[in-house]
Amino acid sequence: MILTRRNRILRQSPAIRSLVAETVLTPADFIAPLFIEEGSHTETPIPSMPGYYRRSVDLTVKEAKELWEMGIRCVLLFIKCKDELKDNTGREAWNKDGLMQRSVKAIKDAVPGMLVMTDVALDPYSSYGHDGIVKDGEILNDETVEALVKMSISHAAAGADFVAPSDMMDGRIGALRLGLEENGYTKTGIMSYSAKYASCFYGPFRDALDSAPGFGDKKTYQMDFANRTEAIRETLMDVEEGADIVMVKPALAYLDIIREIKNAVDIPVSAYQVSGEYAMIKAAAQNGWLTEDKAIVETLTAIKRAGADMIATYFAKEAVKLLG
Ligand code: PBG
Question: CA nearest 124: which of 224, 223, 205?
């Protein structure tokens, strides 16, 4: 055969493949989610997330130091609230001495350069396991947003660099920005979970924090996975309301959405490889059905290729080791 172009020329050795690779992962791409519990020196395995733990504040600080040494520059904090502190107002969420607030301070004290982001949503604090205040079986929007503003201000006061609202109430980004401005927190960023879908892939996370909804589901606030244009509308509104970073969640089943949003906005886009995505890879690997290391690198590269400027992933540490 005489061909003018042989595409295999650019694939024939590791050297040429690395020269022409369009997408390269680096440790600075990753946001490491951390689950925190009360106590000291505790490290509780999460059964549906093999190899992942919920830790007391002291061991969380140790983990943050390790992450920093590996080149990971950002953590996203989630806390497990004690049952007796849960109610329908979420008031523990803005307790200045609450577990989240203490965790932020401890990490910033120990690793000042680490970017600390905090989850903002009422579900870990809600006796109903919902992201908002419940009345007559409904999730109230505006009352919930007021609570989220108080929560965000208390995180900023504790030293959080970014608040990350994951609740999907309407108007919350504008309200959070205003609340932060009015209280002098002009350096606190907002990473908005803008296109957050009502997904079965959050199951293991809800085990980790004991935060599964007590009734119904989250479909009146999280998005329908059938929809694409709605994700763009949600995201553009968040940009207008003052988000610094927008997010698509989950990641792997929503690569089309990541790309659409990357093309539609001029601010950084993040993606969240969620607990169920982690669990699927772990489970298949444990059965010997696929090679874990390869699945980690392939999925994370695909998420970045789709348009994610950064990725929240439970594989952050493993991924950095694999990039070696
Ligand atoms: C809380 C929140 C959830 C996740 C992040 N923040 C769960 C939910 O919305 O039900 C999911 C993260 C994961 O599954 O890894 N609003």
Answer: 205
10: CA distance to ligand 1 center in Å?
Answer: 41
CB 275 less than 6 A from any atom of ligand 1: yes
| CA–CA gap between residue 306 and residue 302 (Å, rounded) | 6
Residue extents of the structural domains in the chain: 27-323
- Which atom of ligand 1 lies at the shortest distance from residue 218's CA? 10
The active-site residue, picked from 218, 249, 282, 317, is: 249
Rounded (5°) CA angle 225-29-282: 60
Q: How far is CA 41 from CA 38, 79, 82, 85, 116, in A?
A: 10, 16, 17, 22, 21
Per-residue confidence in pLDDT tens, the chain, 324 aa: 999 999 999 999 999 999 999 999 999 999 999 999 999 999 999 999 999 999 999 999 999 999 999 999 999 999 999 999 999 999 999 999 999 999 999 999 999 999 999 999 999 999 999 999 999 999 999 999 999 999 999 999 999 999 999 999 999 999 999 999 999 999 999 999 999 999 999 999 998 888 899 999 999 999 999 999 999 999 999 999 999 999 999 999 999 999 999 999 999 999 999 999 999 999 999 999 999 999 999 999 999 999 999 999 999 999 999 997
> What CATH number labels 27-323?
3.20.20.70
Whole-model pTM: value is 0.97
